[in-house]
Design goal:
By secondary structure, the chain is of the alpha/beta class. It is 40% helix and 12% strand. Strand 20, helix 27 and strand 21 form a beta-alpha-beta unit.
Length: 764
């Protein structure tokens, strides 16, 4: 029902008006709320509906480009906002307009968001109804719903996590108090997403203080809830979890008395630590899914009538009139006042609209600045009172390392040891550092607490032993195993960031990042931009990548196509080729406020040389960080041709340079070290100075980094200095085959690199 018609029905109330109640009189039938408090709820509901109407009007006038309604959800929004504490985080979706307004969002903000003005809190980055308000503990929203439930589950676990949040954190002491309840609101359609199922699982498994409110209007655009769940109830798949503390509730979101009573019960249950609550909230859909939908095309007219006459504003208004809380005239006056306020704010927003610029938008994608990273590092270092010299002596005595020396004093080492040492330094630096994932811990199961048995065993510490002894030294709460669930790992990491930590989650192989793609691409990596810079997501995602595993890699352990991940805005990507760079880049990654994909080649972990060319390197001093986007040049005096590469293929190119030198070809070697950001200046300068460029990566050509590197040269003035076409050596267009011959057949080799360099040198 159109809200104006609804108000006409309320104003024409035909029943007998009862005696007015005192405004401060607690009413048992309303959970002890007073008439004044209930009138506030109704006013916010009306405000949300009036804002929604204005968004439709702006759409018709051409000022608003998208509309998505909250009509029918206002009641449950205000009841939830009233029941939970202002300090409780809310992880919602695009139907929570009334919740936002109840917590404090202004009409001006809503109008600015409606027209995409950069003066809005999210800087006009998202379509309407996708806000994020840190001052009101409302986390930034996104359209791919389902994934936000994993963030909510991760946040609720992070809030109750044993490790404290430092005063040096981006949220000093932690964003939310230990007894906070995490509220997650979601539509019934989105609960079919696998991320939602995992979120409920985690909350039940860890018995967190969480409320999942499913706003069930019966329709996901044009798909009926009856085609999604048994009995049309999205809570049915989770009934078995009731054995482990999950409380399932049915709530009538069109009835304010039932809603107040049930929400109070839910809030009390979960805050007491009994477990999470999952609520099926029956709501109406007052209008179609969005401006591009018309539910009259597919919804039974009888059902349409049910939605119309069970409108929560209509029912609540009539009930309040009947119970003597408010009169029809007061509701009409309230509406008229709101109508004037919203109209004025809308007109002001349109009149003062400022178009966004590419520069404004670009400034909201990355926070990275090397000087800021150094400042962050210094802030944590200055606050750290640990004596590293004494600690490393202690670690040596415990058998963690072969020497008591500081890492920077040991001399050349393999990349695995460099990363392990750096992880120890990071763990000593701050309790904000956690690492978790599949197999990262030294021990699991009952062995986590059986210290006597643990003392007799070596422990695991990662499939490749990179995180070895971190759990043993720093505790089970800082280095721990997770279920085999990549999306869950990253959702959990996001939760810890939102609480104030700087986690280092691990995805065992880049090949297995795929299940976490949506959480990474649509949630983690959009946080800074979609919130207009109000929220950030500092985390380092450590993963192994690439082939050259002596034939054992094959399809599922040799993926090196970083182009897939380079195409995600806000994600920084580091690919070290040696111990020194691995240590220095890892510290920079941790100190950055952006998410970083830190790619470690398994082929380089333990090798001391590549076909006779030494690979080991010294690690930098504890306070020496290596900047992103700054390539390193080797053999700068050579200019016959240049090889540009990174990661494992750098070591092959290094060997190739030695082979070519014996043939009279003097090649310069460029190690990019990071591919996002990429050192364009170095690439172009190298092309100008050498004239011939060979790009070598273990990626496939299509969509890979090699083509990007080549285009950096050819789209800029580097092309005018070229003496030959840029030549590429990449993987073939196939997944890596199994066996000793698989790597050599599918990936670059020293022989292939030498042959390509000779062709480039001799034929041009």
């Amino acid at each position: 029902m159109e809200v104006v018609a609804l108000l006409d029905k309320v104003k024409g109330y035909e029943g007998k008006l009862p005696k007015r109640l005192k405004k401060d009189q607690p009413l048992d039938q309303y959970g002890g709320k007073t008439p004044e408090e209930l009138k506030k709820m109704l006013k916010v509901m009306l405000t949300a509906r009036r804002v929604e109407r204005e968004e439709k009007l702006l759409l018709r006038k051409g000022y608003n480009r998208f509309f998505i309604g909250c009509g029918g959800k206002e009641l449950i929004d205000v009841v939830l906002a009233d029941a939970v504490r202002p300090s409780d985080p809310m992880v919602g979706y695009y139907r929570n307009k009334a919740f936002d307004l109840f917590r404090g969002s202004s009409l001006r903000w809503k109008m600015l968001e409606a027209i995409g003005d950069p003066k809005s809190p999210n800087k006009g980055q998202q379509i309407p109804a996708h806000p994020g308000y840190p001052e009101f503990n409302i986390l930034p929203q996104a359209s791919p719903t389902g994934g936000h439930a994993l963030e909510a589950a991760g946040l609720s676990e992070a809030i109750s996590h044993k490790s404290p949040v430092s005063q040096q954190s981006h949220y000093p002491g932690g964003a939310y108090p230990e007894d906070a309840v995490t509220l997650c609101c979601i539509g019934e359609g989105s609960t079919s997403e696998s991320e939602f199922s995992r979120a409920v699982f985690y909350s039940a498994f860890y018995k967190t203080k969480s409320i999942y409110a499913i706003y069930n209007c019966g329709w996901a655009i044009s798909v009926s809830v009856e085609e999604q769940f048994p009995e049309g109830d999205p809570t049915t798949p989770f009934e078995g979890f009731q054995r482990f503390g999950l409380k399932i509730m049915q709530v009538d979101g069109t009835d304010i008395k039932d809603s107040i009573a049930k929400i109070a019960e839910a809030e009390e249950y979960t805050r007491a630590g009994n477990g999470p609550v999952l609520m099926n909230v029956r709501v109406t859909r007052e209008g179609s899914h969005s401006g591009s939908d018309d539910q009259s095309f597919y919804m039974d007219p009888v059902e349409q009538d049910w939605h119309t006459y069970n409108d929560c504003i209509l029912k609540t208004s009539n009930l309040f009139i009947k119970d003597g809380i408010i009169t029809p005239k007061e509701i009409g006056d309230m509406w008229d006042e709101l109508d004037a306020e919203v109209t004025a704010e809308s007109q002001r927003a349109v009149a003062e609209f400022e178009p966004k610029t590419p520069e404004q938008i670009s400034s909201l994608v990355y926070t990275y600045d090397f000087e800021k990273c150094q400042e962050t590092w210094k802030k944590f270092r200055d606050a750290c009172s640990i004596d590293r010299v004494e600690k490393y002596k202690e670690f040596h005595e415990k058998g963690y390392f072969n020497t008591p020396e500081l890492p920077e004093n040991i001399g050349p080492m393999t990349m695995r040891f460099a990363i392990n040492y750096t992880m120890f330094d990071l763990f000593m630096l701050s309790e904000d550092v956690l690492t978790f994932g599949e197999d990262v811990a030294d021990f699991s199961g009952h062995m986590v607490e059986d210290f006597e048995k643990r003392a007799k065993l070596k422990g695991k510490g990662g499939v490749f032993l990179v995180s070895k002894n971190l759990q043993r030294e720093f505790g089970n709460h800082r280095s721990f195993n997770t279920p085999l669930d990549e999306a869950g790992i990253l959702g959990r990491a996001a939760g810890h960031v939102l609480q104030g930590r700087r986690p280092i989650p691990e995805i065992q192989f880049l090949d297995y990042m795929s299940p976490a793609y949506q959480v990474l691409k649509d949630r983690i990596c959009t946080t800074y931009q979609r919130s207009g810079g109000l929220f950030r997501m500092p985390m380092v995602i450590r993963t192994t990548y690439g082939g050259y595993k002596q034939g054992a890699g094959a399809f599922w352990h040799s993926e090196g196509n970083l182009g897939t991940w380079m195409n995600i805005p806000s994600l920084l990507i580091a690919v070290p080729s040696n111990a020194r760079d691995a240590a220095g880049l890892l510290k920079t990654a941790w100190a950055s406020d952006d998410p970083v994909l830190f790619c470690e080649s398994v082929a380089l972990y333990n090798r001391r040389d590549w076909e006779g060319v030494p690979m080991e390197a010294e690690v930098p001093d504890i306070d020496e960080l290596i900047p992103f986007g700054v390539a390193k040049t080797y053999y700068e005096e050579h200019d016959d041709l240049a090889m540009i590469t990174y990661g494992a293929t750098f070591q092959m190119c290094h060997k190739a340079v030695e082979v070519l030198k014996e043939k009279g070809i003097h090649a310069r070697l460029i190690d990019l070290r990071t591919v996002k950001p990429m050192d364009h200046d170095c690439i172009i300068r190298t092309a100008k100075e050498c004239g011939k460029v060979l790009v070598v990566t273990e990626e496939r050509f299509d969509g890979g980094a090699a083509a990007t590197i080549a285009s950096v040269i050819t789209r800029g003035d580097g092309i005018f200095s070229l003496e030959a076409p840029v030549k590429l050596v990449t993987a073939i267009d196939a997944r890596v085959a199994y066996g000793m011959d698989g790597d050599a057949a599918c990936l670059p080799t020293v022989d292939k690199i030498v042959a390509a360099a000779e062709d480039l040198s001799d034929n041009y």
